[in-house]
Each structure stands twice: as structure tokens, then as C-alpha cells.
Amino acid sequence: MNPLLRLLKFGQGYWIDNLTRHMIISGNLKRRVDKQGLRGVTSNPKIFHEAIAKSDDYDAQIETLIAEDRSNIEIYEALVTTDIRDACDILRPLYDELKGQDGFVSLEVSPHLAHDTQGSLQEARRLWQIVDRPNLLIKIPATTAGIPAIEELLFEGININITLLFSIERYQAVAQAYLKALERRLEAGKPVAHIASVASFFLSRIDVLVDQLLSHRIPLPGRSHLEPHPEDLQGKVAIANAKLAYQHFKQILQSDCWQALEAKGAQMQRMLWASTNTKNPAYRDVMYIEPLIGPHTINTMPEDTIEAFADHGRVKETVEENIEEAQKIITELEKIGIDFHFVASQLENEGIQKFIEPYDALLEALGTKCQQRRNRQQVKPLQEVAQQLRRLVIQMTTDAGSGHPTSCLSCAEIVAALFFHEMHWDPRAPKARNVDTFILSKGHAAPILWAALWEAKAIDEDPLSLRKLDSTLEGHPTPNNPWIKVATGSLGQGLAAANGIALANRLDNIHARVYCLLGDGECSEGSVWEAAQFASLNKLSDLVAIVDVNALAQSGPAPYQHDTPVFAHRFQSFGWETIEIDGHDLAAILNAFEQAKKTGPTAIIAKTEKGKGVSFLEGKDGWHGKALDPASMEKALAELGENQANVIVEPRRIGTYIPPQRKPAPALSIGYSIGDEIATRDAFGKALKKLGDFLPELVVLDGDVKNSTRTEYFSEEYPNRFFESYIAEQNMVGTALGLAVCGKISCAASFACFLTRAYDFIRMAGHSRPPHLIFCGSHAGVSIGEDGPSQMGLEDLAMFRAVSGSTVLYPCDGVSAERLTAQATQTQGIVYIRTTRPKTPVIYTTDEKFPIGGSKILRTSKEDKFTLVTAGITVHEALAAYDRLKQKGISTRIIDSYSVKPLDVETLSKAAHETQALFVIEDHWIEGGLGDAVAAAVNSPTPVYRLAITEEPRSGKSEELLERYGISQKAITQKILEFMG
Amino acid sequence: MNPLLRLLKFGQGYWIDNLTRHMIISGNLKRRVDKQGLRGVTSNPKIFHEAIAKSDDYDAQIETLIAEDRSNIEIYEALVTTDIRDACDILRPLYDELKGQDGFVSLEVSPHLAHDTQGSLQEARRLWQIVDRPNLLIKIPATTAGIPAIEELLFEGININITLLFSIERYQAVAQAYLKALERRLEAGKPVAHIASVASFFLSRIDVLVDQLLSHRIPLPGRSHLEPHPEDLQGKVAIANAKLAYQHFKQILQSDCWQALEAKGAQMQRMLWASTNTKNPAYRDVMYIEPLIGPHTINTMPEDTIEAFADHGRVKETVEENIEEAQKIITELEKIGIDFHFVASQLENEGIQKFIEPYDALLEALGTKCQQRRNRQQVKPLQEVAQQLRRLVIQMTTDAGSGHPTSCLSCAEIVAALFFHEMHWDPRAPKARNVDTFILSKGHAAPILWAALWEAKAIDEDPLSLRKLDSTLEGHPTPNNPWIKVATGSLGQGLAAANGIALANRLDNIHARVYCLLGDGECSEGSVWEAAQFASLNKLSDLVAIVDVNALAQSGPAPYQHDTPVFAHRFQSFGWETIEIDGHDLAAILNAFEQAKKTGPTAIIAKTEKGKGVSFLEGKDGWHGKALDPASMEKALAELGENQANVIVEPRRIGTYIPPQRKPAPALSIGYSIGDEIATRDAFGKALKKLGDFLPELVVLDGDVKNSTRTEYFSEEYPNRFFESYIAEQNMVGTALGLAVCGKISCAASFACFLTRAYDFIRMAGHSRPPHLIFCGSHAGVSIGEDGPSQMGLEDLAMFRAVSGSTVLYPCDGVSAERLTAQATQTQGIVYIRTTRPKTPVIYTTDEKFPIGGSKILRTSKEDKFTLVTAGITVHEALAAYDRLKQKGISTRIIDSYSVKPLDVETLSKAAHETQALFVIEDHWIEGGLGDAVAAAVNSPTPVYRLAITEEPRSGKSEELLERYGISQKAITQKILEFMG
Prior knowledge:
2 copies of one chain form a homodimer. Chain A has 981 residues and is of the alpha/beta class. Chain A contains 36 helices and 27 strands.
């Protein structure tokens, strides 16, 4: 038999103190009463706080009360008394069955009235009236102000639970008040049989305080020693005190006074043990239950004590055991110098404080909730917009037969709030700069963006053209649509672009905000955290990231599902402000946007449901990236209802912004002479610095290698236009793109090999088609030498050639490096400049021009037998080979193919026509570089041979490596001699 | 005149309570005494705690005391009494000048003795003896146990500061004890003139508690009202109480008893106001100073109260003003029902607790510090190893003329601790699996790794061969050296590989640990956080990351410099345990390694100095990646000293491990028939699942697209060998590499386009030369259709061709997809398999073989005019074009070039020889793919034309896009017809 039920046999009922509406609605309370021997309930502001603030069980009633225009405190009382009344009704059959001996529900007066007799009287009467149930107990603390109120209320016929009892003295006063009240009733000719009262004695709190006081008295090791030893009393005083109190209770039962009352049918005032959870983990978890079992007692247990007791509680009548020992404990306590009066007084003070704190917290939380509800009624039009966006998204994707409707549904409120309330933007002007920007990092939610633009009358393209050939409403956002600044769809990239846009706004003195909507799944991408770091380091306070935590990824649950604090902690650890909200609560969303204006960057972590609004999609796995069939669409539309959204977006811009007139760059003045030794990376850096002077829109980013790429020259001269991106190349590229799409000439530099880190970003930059975006990869090829293969850019030409609309340049000396850098700033789209670590001699005069798509014939004669096509470092090897071969009477043509893409096909084809073979030499893997390009472009019968890296390189001196891997002057010469047989 | 100095005029001296050694050493205390009117000092365990735990002012003395083998408590007393004695000496001239009227220093007995009369007596006597200064006051609390001790000690001639006074009643007892002690001295014929005592009355704490109690009594708005109003008393009680106490003091002065004592030269027991900092910010900041100024008083002020008072304190004699009001306040307090006895009792309890807590914290912190120091003495041999590694690193890099010595110097202790103490490893067996693993993520610190291996006798290659051609001691770690599992040097990659190694250990039941050393700079790489997330999600508790926070990056300070909590918070937010340590404190390092064993993954955040150990390098910017010249080297070596390191690394393995015998995979049974429609991605997935059955070493990773790549079939069948990597492709690739280098056949899959995200990891995987590492990129090309360009893999062939030692496969139907997947598992190195989204018909019979480097001639005849070379989806377009052309009487040869790298050059060359032109058709950018490869490989006079993607693609139907971008059957046919004119 369950120990809890066995308690009843010994005259003890157990109560709980964690009443909530959920417990009532779910049938849990009734089940406990019917099956588990539960005999009573007390309310608890801490539990109510949790329940009201964190569940939605009360929301419907709150809604109604708000509609009735009730104040917050009235709402509080209505919520609580509803629960109490319902609980009373559940316990009523028991109460009736036990003839009013048990089956009570307690409700406390405000703890702020603990020292206010009159106030307590008034509130107790009012609550008694509101609840209007015979098995209600009003809870009043046993303070000196409480006792007269208790007597008066009992006299008036109101049942009282006297709480916060610690000392026997105070208990005696309480018992007397009860007897007195009953006597007065009899005197006044009133019945007494139905009057009930319990005296609540608190237990574990006594031990907590007394144990601490005892610890002050425990002698230091080896020092003097007190008798009795304080440690012997730890954890014993509360029980001892309660046992002695019970003896007093028994004395009262034997008093003449009580006997007389009992004869008139009065019920005894039972003892209730409260605060019975064990707080010190070193103690037994049922220590406040087992020793206090006996007739006419109640034990109010918290949930885990109930579980523990049900599991291993030992039941026998114990409350009258060891009375002498109890007396001894109290005596020894005094001997040690601990005055129990003081203890009781401190506990009473603390007890009241512990009631006030959750009570006030509850009122505050309720106030917030009420305010949110009141706000929500004001945001109804936006809610209708959100529903309309949902409807449109479902129609669009069903018509397209594909797409990601559920990923759109989760962010409908967020998108509605942004486009129809929060953002300053101009639906007539997609290219306006002085407006807020929206970046849809979770690009697969494109349909809701198109829907929002359509509803705001910013586009007039038929939404049902979604995903159809030649529609700009593509599957993921692309700049084919004029509203799209950067292509998204490869996740985790939006925030980096947003960084760039926020930087551009700052540079152009535009006080606009940038909103970036991310999915929770994409937060697994490290690039998000690179971007987060950059934003906080650069204090991009106008940047707002919104994470749509819809908990479901493509192939199953997202790693952290709805655990929004994970995201909040991460953003915080990267220096962001964070706000966690319900992402379907428009009032909360608007409030978060307001908060985000105070400081930033701010991440709003929005808990949402994927597929929100449609019952068979909401929170359901397996729906990612699937359109509904027409029948399901109809069902979904029916669920979403037919309210007409009617929010007009008025054009709102931020100040005025006049874009600067771009002047063509004059020719750079270059001071090199033929034969000067200078690394192309150095010349690139010098050119950037010079260009900075007359290209105010030139901005430069580097990934902690500015002293290697030589962007440091620019950084020193134009610190405001240089952005140190640290070792985070993905964000560097994304930020550079963001700057570029705002009209900056953006240049990002790193080691060529480390640009591979950002290939996906470079790829997406290609799809974003920025006006000007330059990359420079330094330290190309094996010629870097001792650092070894990890630092060698050997795939950069392959990588950059295969980028949408790219230009690939590879200078070989200082003059061409400077001129090509200048050219790059005037070239549309993505331009890659490949530079070299070692110094190379200047071979061009400063008046040389280097058009994109051109090449330079460095050596030629009518006798040219072979052509050596090359670029960069190996130009110098080819020139040296030329001399060697010349000595052997072999004339070669040398072409510096500095424009790798576009290639100078004409010159190359002519050479193919005029010479016997083309040898392409490059410091790059043999695949995908200049050799491939030349071989494919020169469609002629002349053979093309490629000298490039074909085996894993290693550390060594630069010249040793060129030799070892077959691209040195010697290797070239040898190859040609071999070819000639 | 400074208000502080003016106080003296009115008989009040001010004391401070924040004595520290720093204050003594720096001359601050003396300056205050000499110039600022300071009259006394009390000690404070909270301040001592801060000073001893967080400064190094005490470290030298601690070192000495440890050497003398003193216990922690002895060390504590020695430290504190040293400060107290020194402070006494500083105040002594003042004490002498004032004839013992002021100039005192207080020292408290242990707060654990607050209720122990005998203990207090003994300790007070001992401290008095140790300090041995006449201007010392021993501080004893005014508890009931304290008062007899106070009297006795005063009688013995020991000066006493009576502390923790709250009530007038207790003050009276204290005053009586003083008088009694003096009388007893006189009776005993002892002098009294030099006996000093102060009675310390606490102020602001009273208001804190009373204000709270008053707040319990403030009526609710609109409810009943108490008279007097509790709010009117808030913030007033402490001052009122003190003023009344002062009146009692004055009464004593007028008593006969005192007059008699004064006549014998006794000094009065002055009143000291303590706890005078204002705690409620709503109150005036000098409220506990201004109203209590008067003769024979002291005010002990905290630092900010001193500043506030110096700034705006108003000085006049006030202590006897408003006495009536003070009385009224105390009376009203009683009226309101607040019993001041209880208040005083609670404050006394709390006050003792507030003394005990910092006192215990101080002893604990001191204990930790002492333990660290004791440990440090034990780790001396390791310290010598660290120094030896430093010496070697400097010699190696200077000899090489390049390298990163300063980045090595910062982690010398960490590396020494790992290789010479912590790790279980076997210097004889670089390939052992059942040992701990070390991954040097900050690969540029390679020299210290080589140095450690050399010192441990694990390599016999001359350390001075560093960076020289053919040495395995390369500039960054590469697997040319047998100890290197994965090449590092591209930062932020080590942790992902460590994840893979930890997973492999788990799979193979090897209980070894994986240590990964990172730099602080590389923590800017998002990939570190991808790896951190993966590690915690997969509960890799044997993984330990050590971050060498040396604060300096390549081009300047690292973003967070020495702000180690930033790193700790980040790792915590990614689910890691963290430990912050001084990275040069070997005892702390070893301790952290021990702690890390409890749970994990654990990140040890080590604060270090770049260039540690060499004065001109340590913490100096501008030294990254620079070797010393020979002269500087000599200087550095001289600084590093010449101790001989002598720690032998004994082989230590973990259990036994027998590698499984790998069996060759039997041929897969494939159930497709010609014409069946199946996507190659699906066939790939099915093949993986079948292979899983007889390849126990096959492991599969996916990036949240397993339902698209179809690795889900494998994941369902072999959940233990499938690792969901979420949307974090860099970590997926790095983890796959880690698994691969442990002997797994590792396969990582995602959309082809998203593998670009991990190009740097793929590049480094190439340089790491794993036995078997397979990548599958699905959704290649424009044929994916409506999702648009962001989802189209158009550069993957270019990317994977340009990877060291890679194989690139591109099947066109179910049979070839399955066979090539099986082939991939048997192929050395990195294999890329490209798959397609749409279904394609099966064209091969199941007995067809697909050797690597082969191709299939699908159509041929003697009349072949042209050759169509293609692979994947466009094979089917070519076959359809074949039919169309055939109808027009044009015979073509169709080659399925499924092995893109290596190419079947022979077959292609033959075709070039036998037909008039080659048309290469591919669903890829025109650059870097099959077209380039074929054009470059087929070195013949036959022209090669490329049909591939040349313009930015968009959303649309698959077949529409093939058509639009010129690679459909129709486009092919047309191209050939055009060619023919």
C-alpha cells in the first residue's frame, strides 16, 4: 500500500501547495483526491507565478477580463479565486464525506497585509465572499497583527489557516484565539460546528537558520570545545520544536475550555506541518514527514517530497515518540546560546519577505502579460497581414509545385511586422539607399518575401509566377528581382552581407537599420558566428538579427529544437544583446524591435512553429521544402480563414541621401624602373593606397594578413575605409559583398589559399552580381617556399575561373600589378587578382597598358618555333628559358597572359597558328588553371603542353620548389628540348 | 580645506577598512596618514581575500612560508599579521604624537570564534603577541560570548575593538565590561593609561533590514492606513539609534565610576561608526557620516564614502542634534510593531555570517594558491623541458631563416605538459591507434612539435633540417612526418579533425583522449564553432581543446587580446566545460588536464604571452612569423639559460587494439533494369547502404540533407556509423578527414554547391592524404530546376579536380552510380562523386564494370563524324541528340566520360583521331570542368568544342534550363548542325 494512503490510517492527511489551473483542468487534482489520498490544497504565489507567466492556461480568462477592462489586480484576484473555487468544488465531495473534517483549499491574503490587522480583515472577508465555498480556508500569518484578525474572522465564521508559525509561544496565542473566537460565537448564539482552522507550523526553514547559527559555534579544529557540541544539534531542532508544539496541542485538547467547546460540536484546530521539503541534501529527503505522523495532523508536501515519501516513506505513529529528546534538544540549543525567540522572529521576517517576493513577481509578470494582450489587440491588423501572407505563400508554392511553404509560415508574423510596421522603406523605390534593409538569410523562405512585397504593392509581378522561367520570383532570392541586394539560399551568409550594408550605411552617414532574418538550422554554420563577432567588434548597433527558431531542419529536428536560450547565450558570448520572444506574438515582436533600438547589435531569438497556422503542417516533421497538393491547399486556406488584410505601406525614407558622383580614376603614377625588384603583392598594396586617394568609394578588408597581402598601406592611410576581419574569411567576403552592393568598390585580400575558405561566399557573390568586388589572393603557388603546402594557393585560378561573371588577373611585375589593380576597380563584377610572395624584377615600362582580356608578347621574332604562355612568377622563368633556348638557337615566343579570364584568345590563337606548340607554364595545380584555359580556348591543331604542379609539394626554398615541380627556367628548357627530341 | 581634515576639528577621526599590502608598499597608507588625516585602520577579510587571491603582492612571502613547510592557516596568520604590524609601524608616529589617543590598527580574531569565549581569549592573546605593537586593537564581536572575553582581555592589557554592535543594550554591556576591566586592573595594581578600546556601532545594515521590515507594513494603495506611516521611518533608524547610543556614552562619561577611572589616567572607550557606506542608492551617499560628527568618535569609511565625503561632505558638530526626533523614531518603530531587539539579533547573526563567508573564502583561495605553489615546485622538471623546447625552437627557426618562434614560445609549457607528462603515447610507434592524440591546430607552431618529438626521442631527424627541402620537419605539419595525422596550417581546422579522431576512437572502443591545441586568433574562424557544436552534440567527452591565448595575431593584437573569459563563454555557449588558466603555470596546466577528465568536451583557455621567456619577444607585437638573426638568437638563448631537461617519455598505450582485417568488398548486387528511372543520388544512397553491410569501416556524414543526398538509407540501417553534421559543412569535412586518418572509409555528402563551403577543408584533406575519403555532391548543375542558382553545383568539378591526388567521378545512371560508389570505397585518397537530382533512365546492364580512369563508348560506328563527350545528366541529352542526328544521317560517337579525373585519355584521343570534332557537353560552368579537362588532355589537331553553362542561370523547370543554357539534346543537335554549316 502506498505510504501516502497509509498516513490516513494514523490520522494524518497530506496536502499539496502547488495548485495550478493545469492541475484542475487536466484532472490531476481530482485523481489525486480520488485515488492518492490527497486531503487538501493550499495556494502558493510562487507556483501561480510560474503557471500564469509561463503557461497559456490562464490566457483565455485574461483575454476576457481585459475585454471587461479590469485592472491588473482585479485580474489577479479573478484568476486565483477561480482556481480556488474550482479546487474547492473538486474537494467538496471529500469535505462532505468527512463532514467538514478535511477537504479544504487555502487562499492567502496579500502578504503585504502581514502586519495590518484591518487590512487583513477586509481582504479576508472579500475573498471569502468571492470564493463562496464552505471548504475554503483563508490563510493569515501568525504575526502579532495577524492574531487579532484571525480571532475576529473566525468569530465571523470564516475558516482560517494560520501560517508562518515557528514558535510554541506564538502557537499558543493562535490556539487561544481560536478557542476565544468559538466561545464568542457561542456567546453570540452562533453555531460552531462548521468552523475550521489549521495551525501551520514551518519546519525545514528552522533547521536552515539554526544550522547556520550552530555552524558559527562549531569550534575550530584543535581549539576550545563547547559542550554540548553544536554539530550534534544540526538538523534536529525543527522536528523537536514541532513535537513539543504537538504536546501543547494535546494539552489544549485536555483543557476544560476545549472540552466545553467540543461538547457544542466544535472541531479541533489541527496542526499542519509546512515547509517539509528537505533543503540540505545531506539529510534524508523525508525527514520532515516520518517523525511527525499522528492524529489530527496534516502534512503539506511539495511534489518531490510526495514522490520520495511514496517511494520509501516509513509510516507509523511517531509524533509522540522521543519527546524527552526533543525537550533536551531545545534545552541544549539555549545552552549553546541560541535564543529560539530570535530565531522565530528572524524566520517570521524572512517568511514574510519570501511571500512578498513571489507575490510581487507574480503581479509584475501578470502585468506584463496583460500589457502584451492589450498590445495584441492593437496589432490585429498586422496579424491579418501575416495570415494573408500565409495564404499567398501556400497558393504560390502549390501553383509552382515546389518551394518551402512551412519555412515561410513560421516567420509570417516577423515578416509582416517588418514590412508593414517596423521598417522605413519605400515600396516605390527598390534601389533607395536611405531606407532600412531586409536580408533574408534563410533564402528558402523567398515566397513570403515575394508575398510581402506583393501585398505592400512593391512589385506587380504575378505571385503565381513563382519559380517559373523568367519570373524574378525565383526559388531563392536573386538580384533578378530589384528588391534583392544579395542572393541568398546558401545558408549562413546573410548576416555577413548585413554587416557590409551596415558598414556602408555608417560610411555614408545613413542612419538606417539592417534586419537579417535567419533560420535556426543555419546557425550551425560557423560563418554566422564569424559575422556575429565582426558585428560586435565593429559596434554595428543598427544591425538586428532575427532567428526564426522553428525547431525543424530539412532532414529532421534542428539540433537544439526549441531551446532558444542556446541561441541567446551564443549571441551573447559573441557580444550581442539578445531578446527571446514568441515569434508569433506580434506585440512581442514589435516590442523587441523597439528594445533593439536602444543598443546593439541585437539578436531577437523568436520561438516559432514551422508550418504555423495550418494544423496538419504546424510543428510536423517531413514537410520541409514540400508544396501542398491542391486539395491540401484548400484545406489549409480554409483553416487560415478569409480576413482581408488592409495595411497600407506608406513610403518612409530616412533623411535624404544623394549618392556621390563617381569620377573615373586618373592613371596612377608609378615610380618603378625596369629591373627594380618588387613583389607583385607589394605593388598591389601600393596601388590600393594610391587609388584610395581619388576613389572615396574604395574600401578594403583583410583577414589578419595585411602585412602579407600589403593592404596595410591602405589601412594606415585610410583607417576608416579599412576593415580588419581577422581570421574569418567567410565573413570577410560576405561583408565585402554587402559593401559592394551598396555601391562601394570593395576589395578583400588574404593568402590565395585561404580564399578557398570562402568559396561558397565567393560563389554566392557571383550570383549576387555586385557592381565592383575585388579579391586579391597573395602567396600564390609553390613559390612561397618554406611555409609548405598549407600556405600555397594552388587552386585559386580554378576556383575563381568557375565563378559567375568573374575576371581573373595575374600580374608578373610591379607595373602590371599596379595597373591591373587600377583596372580592377573599373571592371564590372567580381575580379580576382593573384599576387606572388617573392620579389620579381620589373619588366614593363610605366606607360604600358594592361587591358582586361589582353596579353603581352614579351619575346617574338619571325623565327618563333614555340610559344611559352605564362603569367605571374613563371613569366620570369620563361624569360630566362628564352635566353637559354636562344643560346641553343631555338627561338620562342613569350606571352604574358596576365588576363587569365577573359583570355586573349586572338593572340593565343595567332601564336598557335604561327608556332609549333604552345607550352603553358603556371605555378598552380595542372587542373583548372591557365593551362586548361589556354588548351580549351585555342582550338587549333597546334598541341598545347602544360607545365604545372602535378604532385604534392613540400617545404623548401622558392627556387628549389619551382625546379622540383617542373616550372623553373631549367625545367621549361628541358621540356622543350625533350619535345624536340 | 578637505572635509576629511575638518572632521578632526570636531573630535572625529576617520579610519579605513581596506588595508592591503599594496597600500603599505606603495606608500599610500603613509601618505593618507601624513596628508589626509587618516587616523586608523581595520583589517577586512574580504579585502584581504581579493588582495591575496588576485594580486601577487603576497606571493614572495607565501613562497618563503611554503619553503618553511608552514600550514595554510599559519601562512594566513603570517601574511595578515605582517601587514598589520607594518601598518602599526606606519601609524606609530601618529599614535605617539597623540599619546595613544588614536593611530590604531585593528585585527580580528577568527569569526568562527564569535560564540566561543575561550577560543576568543586564546586567539586574541596569540595575535597580540605575534603583532607585538602597542597601537594594535584586537577585534572581538559584541556577542554574549564575546563580552566576557572582552573584559578579560582588556584586564590583561590587550586593546580591544568591539565589533558588531547594533543595540544600545549590548553597547551598555560592552561599556560596563570596559569599566570593569579597568577597575580590575587598578585593583590588581596595574596601569590603565595605555589601555584603549573602541565600540563599533554598525549603521547602514540596520537601515537595510529595518527598511525591509517597514516595507512589509506599507499599506496597499487604497487599503487601510497605519499611523505612523512606515515609509516615514525608512532610512532613519540607524542614525537615530546611533545618536541615542552616543547619549548613553555621554552618560557614562558623567558617571562616578568613569570619573574615578579618568582620574587614574584611563582613556575613554570611543564610539566608532561602522558600516557607513550607503547601500540604498536613493539615499545620500554621506548620510552615515554627516549626522554623527562629534567628540570622541571615529568613522570607518569605505573608499567611495571617503571620496564622496571629501567631495561634498558637510562638516559640523551634529551627533547631539535632533536627539528628540531620534527618540521619536525609535518609539514609532516600536509602535509600528518592529522590535529592535529582534532586529539587532538578526543583524548580529547575519553579521557573523558576513564575516565567516569572506574569511572562509580567503582561506580557500589561499589554500588553492599555496597548493599551486607547492605543485609548481613539483613540476620543475617539466618547466625545464619547456625551456629546452624554447631553446630548440629558436635555434631551429634561426637556422631555417624563417618560421614562427614566438607562436611556439607561448605554448611551450602546454606542449611540455602534454608530451612529457599527460599524454599516453609511445615514442616508438607513430602509427599506434590506442594512444592519446595530439592535433596542432595552430600549425605554424610546428617547430615546437618537432622539438618535443625530438626531445622525447620520437624522431631522429636533425631538428635543424626544419623547413629544408626533403626534411619531414616542414614549415607546417604535413603527413610527410609519420607523427602527423592531418596537415594543419590553415587555421581553425584542427578541432574538426579531432572530432573525427574522437569518433573513430569511440567506434573502435579505444578509451584514449584527443588534445587539440588552438591559437586565439583562429577562434575567429567559424569552423571552430561548428566543430565545438558537433563535439558537444556528440558528447565527445574525451576531447580537450587548449586555446593558447597569446593575445597577438599575425598583423596586430588578436581581437580579444587577453580577455580569456570571452573564449570561455563562447565554448560554454557551445556546450563545453571550460577551465581558465595561466598557460605558463605548469601546475595549473596539469590540474586542468585532471579536471578535464571528469567530463567534457573541455576547453582549457590558457592565458599566455607570445614570445614567452625572451624579454625582447615576450608580448611584443611585430614578431609573428619571424626568425631571430644569429645575434638575437644568442641573446635569447642566454636569457633562457642552460638547465638540462631530463624527462624520459616512457611508452604508454591504452589497452590493446588489434586493427580489423579489411576484406575486399564483393560485387554489389544491383537490381535495376535498362530503362528504369532512378536518380543517381538515389542509387548512390542505396549503394552506400549495401556497402555498409560488408564494410564495417564505412562511416557516413551528412549536412542536414540526408533525405536529398540519400545518405538516409545508410543512416537508417547503420545509425552508429552515421553522423548528422547539420548545416556545417566545414566541420563535416574535417570530421570525415579525422575518421579517415584513423582507418575509416569516410564518406561526406551534401549538395554539390554546398561542398564549396568546405573547399579549404577539402584542400587540406588533400594535403593530409587520407587512405580513403569520399565526397558526394548531389544536385549538380542547372538540372536541379526551380530552386535556382544558389542550389546549383556548377563549380564542383573545377573545385575537386584541383585537389591534391583527387579522383572525380560523375555517373549518369543507377548502375554506374552504384558501381562507382563501390569503386570509390576501394580507391586511395580523395574521391568525389557527382550526382544528379532528377531521375534518369538506366542505360547500363548490371554486369557493366566502371574502372577508375575509364569511359564508356555508348554509340559508335565506322561512320562516326563527331564525338559527343559527356557525363552525368547530359549523357541522356547526348543520346537523344544522337538519335536526332542519326535521323539526319549524321553519325556520332557518344562517350560517357564518367571518370572526369583521371580521364580516359586513350579513348578520347582515339575519338579525336577518328572523328572531325569533339563536343564536350556538361552541366557545369564552362571553366574548369570536363570540357577543360578533355581539351587539355586531347592534344590533337581535332577541335574540341565545349557546351556548358556560360551565363548566370535562373529558376525554371529542369528541361527548360538545359535548353536555355545550351546543353539539351536540341541545343547539342543545333550546335553540330551549325558546325557543319
